[in-house]
Amino acid sequence: MHYDPLVFLPRRKCGNDVLDSGEECDWSDNFRDGCSFDCTCIPPYIPSGHLACTLCGNGKLDQGEKCDGTIGCSKCVCEEGYTNVESGCQRVTVPASTTSSTTSSASIQENQANNSGANVGLLVTGILLASVVSIIVVLVVFLKIKKPELLQSLKNRFRNEKS
């Protein structure tokens, strides 16, 4: 077992110039940018899959990065719906001949989002309508109990206006 002379704790194989299991980087005797003494990457550096960490977001394609700072690039990896090209990430497009017979998942998601907005509108309308009906029912019950003569007068007025 190796001991770290700085803290007197047993250490893994960190520092052996090999990227061992559990290590994000390996600094060895040669300090590598962003790699700490416990073989983890120091933010803003991220693991590159190689001995050194990479500084994602510096605008250049470093070892282990698939992209750096381009549209569709997140943490130096192309996002879903994008693919790697030499200059970074490019949106994956479906050929026009296949889009006419099938619906893309993006358009399905867009339709679902639009429908959910319409559903919310219908829900609000339904709640308002139920509230109005409830108020009318409460008013009719109140008039029937407390003011039956006023309720009869309103019924008669309504009948006269219809004729």
Describe the structure.
The protein is of the alpha+beta class and 163 residues long. It folds into 2 domains: 1-55, no CATH class; 98-162. 37% of the residues lie in helices and 11% in strands. It has 3 helices and 6 strands. The chain has helices at 96-99, 105-146, 148-162; strands spanning 2-4, 9-11, 73-74, 77-78, 82-85, 88-91. The strands form 3 sheets. Strands 1-2 form a two-stranded antiparallel ribbon. Strand 1 and strand 2 (9-11) form a beta hairpin. Helix 2 (105-146) crosses helix 3 (148-162). The relative contact order is 0.06. The model has no long low-confidence stretch (mean pLDDT 75).
Give a quick rundown of the structure.
The protein has 163 residues and is α+β, with helices and mostly antiparallel strands. Helix content is 37%, strand content 11%.
What would you report as the Rg, rounded to the nearest angstrom? 34 Å
Distance between the termini: 103 Å
What order do the SSEs take from the amino end to the carboxyl end, as H and E?
EEEEEEHHH
What is the SS-derived class? Answer: alpha+beta
- Enumerate the strands of the largest sheet in spatial order, edge to edge or round the barrel: 1-2
Shape assignment = elongated
Strand content: 5-15%
- Please give the number of β-strands: 6
Instruction: Return residue spans where pLDDT drops below 50 for at least 5 consecutive residues.
Output: none
Helical proportion, percent range? 25-40%
The averaged pLDDT comes out at: 75
Total domain modules: 2
Give the biggest sheet. 2 strands, antiparallel
* Tally of individual helices: 3
